[in-house]
Amino acid sequence: MSSWKDVNCEHKDLIHDVAYDWYGHRLATCSSDQYVKIWDMDPDTGEWKLSSSWKTHSGSVWKVTWAHPEFGQILGTCSFDRTAAVWEESPPGTWVRKTNLVDSRTSVTDIKFAPRQYGLLLATCSADGVVRIYEAPDVMNLSQWSLQHEIPCKTTCSCLAWNHSSPKSAPLLAVGSDDSASSSLPKVFIFQYNESHRCWIKVESFSHVSEPVHDLAFAPNVGRSYNILAVASKDLQIITLKPNNESGYEVRLAGQYDDHGSTVWRVCWNVTGTILASSGDDGYVRLWKCNYLDNWRCVAILKGDVNKRAIPNFKSNNMKL
After folding, report:
1. Disulfide check for 234: which of 43, 193, 194, 211 has CB 3.0–4.6 Å away?
2. Which domain holds residue 169?
3. Distance from C-alpha of 160 to C-alpha of 137, rounded to nearest angstrom
4. Are 170 and 195 in contact (CB under 8 A)?
5. What pTM was computed for the model?
């Protein structure tokens, strides 16, 4: 049985992103009002209480992300003001800017910390078509970050995602583009880190994804020998990547679904990578699960805004309750 709670985030403008911490007990929100807010869940009542609110940038804040708690209470933010920032909570309730990353000449559209097995790495992507990867050489000194790699994508970048493979596997980065100028060009690219050359190499691009991409998410890899990538675009696409040699992948479109009947904006996996959540302009969140035939089906529909009348698309053959 599912339940929901309405949280009045008190932002004065459009909310662009929300992010749970590792344990799901803290929630960060960011907005065009240039503020980030932190919400803590009361373990006794289950209510979300505002613990911090501060101005982070001089432009709209597009994304907010948490680092693994092994490194402390650390946030990353990116903004229309062409910068990304790293924040640390010290003492509790007070967030301090540890560094400002100013290498981009255009809006920084996404920011993600790498899985902890790769160390304290941070990836950003920008409208200038460049993915930048930074490293904190000393995790006890978050004011020092070095730019390790710049990956040119030759198109506007809108979102990115790290894979969650084991430390024995080479890191992968998926990068999405929202460039609408050329609908014939691929909008999703896969880059793999080559240890021998110490650089990132493009190993795949998805020709079947030709519409602007708004979000990407790799499924957590729990005992799986391949990767699953969810793509939020004009519709929802689920893609599998199976290694077929040292530097190549067999790419298969596992499913393409237009159940939202509108643009899909966000995709997110559960901790085991077995259930996918997608949200769209129809005002609904849909939950997806794979059956024994390796087919993905919508198993639940959640109304996103209780004050807004939204009409779900129940005509899809993918709906199974």
Report:
1. 211
2. 15-264
3. 23
4. yes
5. 0.90
